[in-house]
């Protein structure tokens, strides 16, 4: 079976999409964990009875008013959740593009090509 230049481009594109798909899965997992951790931190902060709490900024802990820390945690959580949504959308887009490429490549190569993961 002859592989044309366009076929090779489709195979390369599928490979790039597949690599990005796996990167996105890792990024999504990290973002979910971060979102959960921020949710837990917010809940713990509600239970705290101190007016000044320690808040990590970079590698340093600073004493900040409880209200300011609550605001910062909420902002960080919102930003993380928005990032998570964008990553999920990109993942869905990649899945649909990969499905289209699979159709094209399997139509031409049938059993001669394996695009499935084991």
From TrEMBL:
SUPFAM superfamilies per the UniProt record, alphabetical: Prefoldin (SSF46579)
InterPro entries: PFD_beta-like, PFDN4
Keyword match Coiled coil: yes
Coiled-coil portions: 14-41, 70-104
Keywords: Chaperone, Coiled coil
Family matches, as Pfam families: Prefoldin_2
This protein's record includes keyword Coiled coil: yes
Assembly and interaction partners: Heterohexamer of two PFD-alpha type and four PFD-beta type subunits.
Biological role: Binds specifically to cytosolic chaperonin (c-CPN) and transfers target proteins to it. Binds to nascent polypeptide chain and promotes folding in an environment in which there are many competing pathways for nonnative proteins.
Family assignment from sequence similarity: Belongs to the prefoldin subunit beta family.
Name of the protein described by the UniProt record: Prefoldin subunit 4
Native source species: Brassica napus
Phylogenetic placement of the source organism: Eukaryota, Viridiplantae, Streptophyta, Embryophyta, Tracheophyta
């Amino acid at each position: 079976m002859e592989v044309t230049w366009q076929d090779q481009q489709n195979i390369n594109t599928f490979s790039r999409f597949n690599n990005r798909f796996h990167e996105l899965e890792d990024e999504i997992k990290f973002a979910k964990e971060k979102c959960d951790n921020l949710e837990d931190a917010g809940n713990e902060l509600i239970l705290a009875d101190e007016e000044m709490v320690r808040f990590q900024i970079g590698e340093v802990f600073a004493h900040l008013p409880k209200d300011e820390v609550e605001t910062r945690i909420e902002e960080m959580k919102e930003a993380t959740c928005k990032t998570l949504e964008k990553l999920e959308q990109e993942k869905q887009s990649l899945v649909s593009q990969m499905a289209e490429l699979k159709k094209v490549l399997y139509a031409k190569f049938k059993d001669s090509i394996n695009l499935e993961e084991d």
